[in-house]
Amino acid sequence: MEKAPGGTSVGVSDPYDHVDRCDFVTDEGKCRWAREHGHHDPDFADRRSADGFRCPAAVGPDGDPDESEWDWADCPHFRCRNRDRECGRCGLEERRNAHDDSRPLLEEHHLSYSGAADGEELGHEITVYLCRWCHAKVHNAWARIDDDAGPDPEAIAAKEGRKSREQSELGFTSAADRYDDA
């Protein structure tokens, strides 16, 4: 399994197996990074501009996604942050409490530490959401993200507790019942 620079497990053998697409790729297969941040890497931006800003990892020269020339790992500016608000391991859905500082049920888990073993800086950012309980299991190195797992009983209880508080706030209580003058 891949390891973080501190030696803890990231819970996967290949972080790129958990990537759908780069955050910078448009629906048309164009590279937004080259357009918006190209001043940070002018050579890369110039090459992408000369090719109509086509992302070689997303689509081939003819626009076919099955004919891409690169793997995601080949792109120097690749980033993939999961936006799904459920645990990538057990499927627990997030339930946030508005106006509350309680700890979220889901936490961002970083999968990619590419180059860290070679002494290079972190090259790509790949993140998924894991519930607090799965996150601890993965970092304790006895669980993998792609395990077939169900939510921990404590996780379900925490989620249902939040759901109950949310529903009680939505309930209607008449003023006569709330302010009993007797």
Outline the structure in words.
With 182 residues, this protein is an alpha+beta fold. It has 2 domains: 1-22 and 78-171, no CATH class; 23-77, no CATH class. Helices cover 25% and strands 8% of the residues. It is elongated.
Structural domains: how many: 2
Distance between the termini: 67 Å
Largest sheet: spatial strand order: 1-3-2
User: Radius of gyration, Cα only, in angstroms?
Assistant: 22 Å
Low-pLDDT runs of 5+ residues are none
| Number of distinct helices | 5
Specify the biggest β-sheet: 3 strands, mixed
What order do the helices and strands follow?
HHEEEHHH
User: What is the approximate shape?
Assistant: elongated
Number of strands: 3
Structural class: alpha+beta
Helix content: 10-25%
Average of per-residue pLDDT values: 84
Residue share in β-strands: 5-15%
Task: Sum this structure up briefly.
The chain has 182 residues and is an alpha+beta fold.
Draw up the topology in text:
Blueprint: H1 32-37, H2 42-50, E1 79-81, E2 106-110, E3 125-131, H3 132-139, H4 153-170, H5 175-178
Parallel strand pairs: 1-3
Antiparallel strand pairs: 2-3
Protein traits:
182 residues, 3 strands, alpha+beta, 2 domains
